[in-house]
């Protein structure tokens, strides 16, 4: 199964998004982490943790089980429960593909997964953002009354220790094209009313991933472009 990831740093000091894949006995996991903050410490932690998540999800053959295990590991890190600590963390999305079985997806935070069916022209959003904008929408606030900055306040992330972990999950068909995207990759497209599908369907996975992040940065507000990361995979 062909797959590729591409990144642009935007105006941030560090690239703190990370992707990883891992395959065990034909089951492949695709993971994307969107680090919270911009520092070398966050960058290193996010890269290592993306690999850990992909390995865990492939080993158990389930996106949700793998993400819950990774969330528990992060929550148990020394100092994580200290309200004054500043340990690295990230939003995360992971997908697990086994041929002829439903694709499973799980997430925490506002990293997203999309699925474009084979031969289709409309991508389905598989995730639901865990951020204050979505919370306010769910509580009946009109979209026009919600300040843009609310979507940058996430209510779930790896290692979050306030109550039960908020982890979403979904399934879809095992064929087609998968996209995992950080908010820096999908938000500028949505804000600029740029259709996702022509970019996602553009050529092989490497071409599509490059088109997505390049277009995202080109459409981001001047001097406020976030890290943009896209992982694209053809599923068979």
UniProtKB/TrEMBL annotation:
Residues 1-235 form the PPM-type phosphatase domain. The lineage of its organism: Bacteria, Bacillati, Actinomycetota, Actinomycetes, Kitasatosporales. InterPro entries: PPM-type-like_dom_sf, PPM-type_phosphatase-like_dom. SMART domains: PP2Cc. This is Mucin-2. Coiled coil: none annotated. It comes from the Bacteria.
């Amino acid at each position: 199964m062909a797959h590729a990831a591409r990144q642009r740093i935007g105006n941030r000091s560090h690239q703190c998004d990370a992707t990883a894949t891992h395959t065990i006995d034909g089951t492949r996991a695709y993971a994307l982490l969107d680090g919270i903050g911009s520092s070398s410490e966050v960058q290193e932690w996010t890269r290592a943790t993306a690999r850990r998540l992909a390995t865990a999800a492939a080993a158990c053959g389930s996106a949700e089980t793998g993400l819950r295990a990774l969330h528990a590991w992060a929550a148990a890190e020394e100092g994580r429960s200290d309200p004054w600590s500043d340990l690295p963390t990230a939003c995360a999305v992971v997908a697990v593909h086994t041929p002829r079985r439903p694709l499973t997806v799980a997430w925490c935070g506002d990293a997203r997964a999309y699925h474009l069916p084979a031969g289709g022209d409309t991508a389905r959003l598989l995730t639901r953002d865990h951020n204050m904008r979505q919370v306010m929408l769910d509580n009946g606030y009109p979209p026009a009354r919600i300040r843009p900055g609310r979507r940058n306040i996430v209510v779930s992330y790896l290692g979050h220790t306030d109550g039960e972990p908020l982890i979403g999950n979904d399934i879809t068909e095992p064929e087609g094209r998968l996209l995992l995207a950080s908010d820096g990759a999908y938000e500028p497209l949505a804000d600029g009313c740029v259709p996702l599908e022509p970019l996602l369907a553009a050529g092989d996975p490497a071409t599509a991933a490059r088109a997505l992040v390049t277009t995202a940065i080109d459409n981001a507000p001047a001097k406020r472009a976030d890290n943009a990361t896209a992982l694209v995979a053809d599923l068979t």
